[in-house]
Design goal:
Length: 202
């Protein structure tokens, strides 16, 4: 497969009306949970100045993804996962995006299994993805207090992923919230998520 270099000055392009794409990956299976609420607020802040087709919230659990088999089939066929699922479509969306926002609840001190499958499948286009200049955001929602190591474990993993690809982690927000609707009722925290865009334009 042939992939072109899509490095861009995002702030300049947004002001100049040039198309850019934002992909928000929701790793929570709860569609009315706190992670989805946080990501929706991030999307609300980003939407201004973008066309509807330039912003997508991708609910991972609504799609069919399979765990990586370590078969290296993708390395023999030019970068396409050989499993009959939605991996190829999703990785293309990730490839096309200028900005990626990963959102996950904390499950046993790590990101959700749904989001981890997405991360593992990046391997299929590892070489091509390294050629791209992307900005990345991370939203982590857990039940434990913010001094629990679970948040740092997830953030450190995302830092390693971004370092590997040469991407820039522009923000990492962590919130402790348990009951569904708890975060959405906190206007101060929701305002922080709506303002996440500002760090991506720096």
């Amino acid at each position: 497969a042939e992939y072109k270099d899509r490095n861009r000055n995002l702030a300049a392009e947004r002001k100049g009306g040039i198309t850019m794409k934002v992909l928000i990956l929701n790793g929570s299976p709860r569609m009315k949970g706190n992670t989805k609420a946080a990501l929706s607020a991030v999307a609300d802040g980003i939407r201004e100045g973008l066309k509807p087709e330039e912003l997508e919230i991708y609910d991972v659990s609504k799609h069919k993804l399979s765990a990586c088999l370590a078969c290296d089939g993708c390395k023999r066929n030019g970068g396409t996962c050989v499993q009959p699922d939605d991996t190829a479509e999703l990785i293309q969306k990730i490839y096309d995006a200028d900005i990626l926002v990963f959102g996950t609840p904390v499950y046993f001190w790590g990101m959700s299994a749904q989001l981890k499958m997405v991360v593992d499948k990046l391997y299929s286009r590892d070489g091509a993805l390294k050629k791209l200049d992307k900005k990345v955001g991370l939203v982590t929602i857990g039940a434990a207090a913010l001094d629990d190591p679970e948040y740092k474990l997830i953030e450190d993993q995302m830092v390693c992923i971004c370092d590997h690809f040469g991407w820039k982690l522009t923000f990492s927000y962590q919130v402790s919230a348990w009951e569904a609707g708890e975060l959405e009722a906190d206007e101060e925290k929701m305002s922080v998520f709506r303002g996440a865009w500002e760090s991506m334009e720096e």
